Amino acid sequence: MIGLAERQTLAHRLARLGGALRAHDVHTTLRDELDGAEALRLVDLDDGEEVRRALRIGLKIPRPRWEIFDRLFDACWSGQEPIEPPPPPHAAPTAPRGQLPRWDPDTRRMVVTDDPGRSGDGDQPGYSPEALLRRKPFDQLAAVGPDLVLMERLLARLARRLAAHRSRRLVPTRGRGRPDLRASYRRALGTAGELVTLARRGRALDEPRLVFLCDTSGSMDAHSRFLLTFVLSVRRAVPRAAVFAFNTELVHLSPSLAPGKIRLTLQRLAASVPDWSGGTRIGASLTTFVERHLDRCVDRRTVVVILSDGLDRGDPAQLAQTAQQIQRRARALVWLNPLLGDPRYQPLAAGMEAALPFVDHFAAAHNLESLERLIPHLRR
């Protein structure tokens, strides 16, 4: 039986190793680290080679990266400092490494905690344009230029990752998959008992049920273009996702979203949505959603996502009531606030403070990296 102190030591080493791998461009997610922890339960922890092989499998290290994995494993598992890649000649400044702001419901204040997805000194360095762009705040991106084009591509790729999640449920498939002997034998009845081809079963695509409520008021201008790009990319990958915009009133966007270029769609929406970049009445807009769309769009399998800075000119009590109604019916209520990317931010605005008790997941949405952390919560 492994003691608590030993489990904590293993968790710390695994987190340091995951952070070091990401710093060396070896793609390792928090889900991979959890798989690695499960793999460690099956081996002799006193046998270094067994541990090495188990983590190589659990973390899904591709064969071309085995050499760098072995170097980092030797350093991290022995307690040495991980090998740091050289920084770029002109690296952009970044937020505190390995730190994330988090809402603490007990103290009702924002606290800065370690990011569970990486160790304290395993943050990704800015050694490539894509890595820099993942951490760059949306409000610092130029309205035109190569960064904008690349960001749109990265947001679309992130949306496809969400839609490509596979469940544990197996369904018949014509492609690669596990042999299905029962179906193969039934098929052989039509060929005089001869097994001509094997029937196969593969993991089904698990399409999430999503509803997005997007704040398009003036205070969201610096972020709304990129957040809406992400939402529209999700809608293209998950056609059943419902999309609404709100400021002083609610607009159902789903019927008007046709396949096409997202940039043109955004321009069309900006021209057609009333009071775009105007004021905000979140409580009144959510009340309209509850009265007209809640029963049709939301059930116990639906994740409702509100993208807003929470700066509301309306009645906080109305916002709290509608947030509670949505949470009761949905599987989860997620609130993404771009202001939360600043560690100094406190959700003290009356509307935001009123809604928080009914929010299941309160998170930042100020850059691509923050949206990547959202994916597991949308796959609930």
How do the helices and strands follow one another from N- to C-terminus? HHHHEEHHEEHEEHEEHHHEHEHEH
Alpha-beta classification: alpha/beta
| Major sheet summary line | 6 strands, mixed
Q: Quote the distance from N terminus to C terminus.
A: 31 Å
**Low-confidence blocks of residues:** 86-98, 116-127
Strands side by side in the biggest sheet: 8-7-6-9-10-11
Top CATH class of the largest domain: Alpha Beta
The CATH superfamily name of the largest domain is von Willebrand factor, type A domain
Give the tally of structural domains.
3
Give me the CATH architecture of the largest domain, please. Answer: 3-Layer(aba) Sandwich
Chain-averaged pLDDT: 78
Helical content band: 40-55%
Total strand segments: 11
Cα-atom radius of gyration: 24 Å
Short overview:
The chain is α/β, with parallel strands linked by helices and 380 residues long. It is built from 14 helices and 11 strands.
Q: Would you mind describing this structure in some detail?
A:
About 7% of the residues have low confidence. The chain starts with a helix and ends with a helix. Helix 6 runs parallel beside helix 14 and helix 10 packs parallel to helix 12. It has three domains: 74 residues; 38 residues, no CATH class; 170 residues, Rossmann fold (3-Layer(aba) Sandwich), CATH 3.40.50.410. 42% of the residues lie in helices and 16% in strands. It is α/β, with parallel strands linked by helices.
